[in-house]
Specification:
The protein is mainly alpha-helical. The chain has a domain of 107 residues. 47% of the residues lie in helices and 0% in strands. Helix 2 packs across helix 3, helix 3 packs across helix 6 and helix 4 crosses helix 6.
């Protein structure tokens, strides 16, 4: 005679499955059979690149630019975007750090930028030594601008300055990108962000409605 099976409802079965699943997630790491060390945790850890913690931001790759290279980048970034009545300098908004992070990123599409930036820094300092027997960051402002004028593309670029010009084009793009995506530059752009207007919504200004020819819509 076969033993009777205890009846279990579908609802009870689902509760049991849900309970065991939750217990597996919540359970701490325990020693596996015949092992002295703890078993791996039952949950997968946070991946620093693909699953960032925005409350505790970290940069999971090593910054590649040396201290001397960063000095050159800082001077050049501040020549491109100096402090003025419109806003802070590039270095005040940590644009050189942004450039260092950008070219140090371990992605294939950053390799070319990395090589051009580091090669361009070397070219710039070599050219500076050739003209002034000093590194670019040690030359006075007049000498620095003299070199920059030859590679910024404002006029015809000589053959011997082509590498420098290509480097300057990239570092100018990165400087502008890093600067104008920083909240410290928004005021000069006229961007106010997502802020409360206070009080009742005034509606779309009449001049905008007329400009867009929306009189029959609004």
């Amino acid at each position: 005679m076969k033993p009777e099976r205890s009846a279990i409802s579908r609802r009870d079965a689902l509760k049991w499955l849900a309970g065991t699943s939750a217990a597996g997630v919540a359970a701490p790491a325990m020693a596996a059979p015949n092992e002295t060390g703890p078993a791996p945790a039952s949950t997968v850890g946070r991946h620093p690149i693909h699953d960032p913690d925005f409350f505790k931001p970290v940069f999971p790759w090593e910054k590649l630019l040396s201290e001397e290279e960063m000095k050159t980048v800082t001077v050049l970034a501040d020549i491109i975007l100096p402090k003025d009545e419109l806003g802070p300098s590039a270095s005040e908004l940590k644009v050189p750090e942004f450039i260092n992070e950008w070219i140090s990123a371990p992605y294939e599409d950053k390799v070319a930028d990395r090589e051009l930036i580091r090669g361009g820094i070397a070219w710039l300092n070599t050219e500076s030594f050739r003209r002034f027997e000093k590194r670019f960051d040690e030359v006075n402002a007049t000498g620095q601008i003299q070199i920059v004028d030859d590679i910024c593309g404002a006029g015809e670029v000589k053959a011997e300055h082509q590498l420098g010009a290509k480097f300057f084009t990239l570092i100018r793009k990165l400087t502008l990108g890093g600067y104008y995506t920083h909240s410290g530059s928004w005021k000069q752009l006229g961007y106010v962000g997502n802020i409360s207007l206070g009080g009742a919504y005034p509606g779309v200004p009449q001049e905008i409605i007329e400009l867009l020819k929306l009189q029959d819509v609004v």
